[in-house]
Every structure is written in structure tokens, then in C-alpha cells.
Amino acid sequence: MAKKNPKAPAHGRNVRRSARHRHCRYLIVCGGEVTEREYFQRIGQHGEVRFNVISKTLDPEGLAKHAAKLKQEDLRNAENGIDPYAGVWVVVDVDEYKNHAQAQRICRDNGMELIVSNPCFEVWLIDHVRACPDSYTQTSSVERYAADLGVTTGHRNKYVDFQKIDGRMAEAAVNAGRHNTDARAKGRRRLIPGQEQTYAPWTDMVLIEQLISRSS
């Protein structure tokens, strides 16, 4: 009888668990066709976290429904031995939309995270160099300020200047904490259908720093 190799894993599942730890996959479904996609693709190039980024020109509810569909498709693939997504994030701006409550419900029902930036994703980019000022509550003013700081550039200032923000994610989380006040957190939790969201500036993107920190 052949001797067993004492160094060999007891079962093939141990190998798969190791691979899963090294390549933890997240699905990001976002409304930004350029800025958000570029950002997530960049930070997904490092560490153990991998992002599959899908951008769609849909409102928050539409993005949440699309993400739920993709998650179910991924779970079916998992039955064939492919590791499922470790998490699914629906990344949205507030802007002019008023259906965030519906998006939140869909995400909650499907085990996904709704990541909201109010009024827009550029709040998080600004936080990489300084806390987004409390007076910046409109998309136009936030986007203009991001361009003035140089964190966005290119056509219509839709591209991220990574030389300005690389290596500053922990600082961004600290700065976000300065404007993500307890009072605004109440507004973030109280998403009422059809109601204008007035808790700006705010960003749930602080969760990305926590995720990256845990995986590093």
C-alpha cells in the first residue's frame, strides 16, 4: 500500500480555501461610467481583493435590481466549483434621484450593500486630500472643488488623478469621519421613498478602507 504524504492536505477543500483567501472577489455595480469604474479598477490591482466592476446608466433602484440579477447568476456558477462573490456593492450618488429607499430595500433583501455618496462620489475623492467642506452639498460645487484640488482631471473632469490620491485611503477615511456626523448618519439611515436626501456631504465609501485594511 502506498504511503500517504504527511505534508499533503487532508482534503482538496483546503486548497480551495487558500485560493479563496488570496483572491477574494467583490462585485461592484455603479452608476458612474468613468470615475467610479476607474477608481475601483485601480484599487483592485493591489492586495488580495479583486473587484469586478460593472457600470450602468441606471437609477439606484435599477442598479440594485441589476446587481441582484448578477449575484444570482454568480451563485449558480458557484455550483460548478467557482467561488462566489465575497460581497456585492451597489455604488450610487444621490444627485437628483429619489428612489434610494427602494434600492436599499432590494440590497437588504438580497444580502448586498448600498454604498451612497451624497451628493456624489467626488466627496470621497476630495477626502483623500482634505475633508470635504460642509458647505459643499450640491453636485456641481463638489465636482468643481474636486477639479480645483486636482483629484479629478481630463474630459469634463471625470478621470481620477491617482498621483494625488494613491496611498491616502486611510487619510480619506479619517477625513470622511469629520463630515459623516451622527446627525447626518440619521439622515442616511432614514431613506424615505420620494424624499430629497439632505444629509450631504456624506460617503459610505469609508467601508472600502475597512475592507482593504482587513485584507492587507
Task: Describe what you observe in this structure.
This protein is α/β, with parallel strands linked by helices and 216 residues long. 46% of the residues lie in helices and 15% in strands. The protein contains ten helices and seven strands. The chain has helices at residues 12-22, 35-43, 60-78, 100-109, 122-127, 139-149, 162-165, 169-179, 182-189, 206-215, and strands at residues 24-30, 49-55, 87-93, 113-118, 152-153, 159-160, 202-203. The protein has a five-stranded mixed beta sheet, sandwiched between helices. Helix 3 (60-78) runs parallel beside helix 4. The radius of gyration is 19 Å and the shape is globular. Mean pLDDT is 89; it is low at 1-22.
Observed structural traits:
216 residues; five-stranded mixed beta sheet; 46% helix; globular
Spans of at least 5 consecutive residues whose pLDDT stays below 50 are 1-22
Question: Hey, roughly how much beta strand do the residues contain?
Answer: 15-25%
Distance between the termini: 44 Å
Residue-averaged pLDDT, rounded?
Answer: 89
Order of helices and strands: HEHEHEHEHHEEHHHEH
Approximate shape: globular
Quaternary state of the chains: single chain
Order of adjacent strands in the largest pleated sheet: 2-1-3-4-7
What would you call the structural class? alpha/beta
Helix content: 40-55%
Number of helices: 10
What does the largest sheet look like? 5 strands, mixed
In a few lines, what is going on in this structure?
It contains 10 helices and 7 strands.
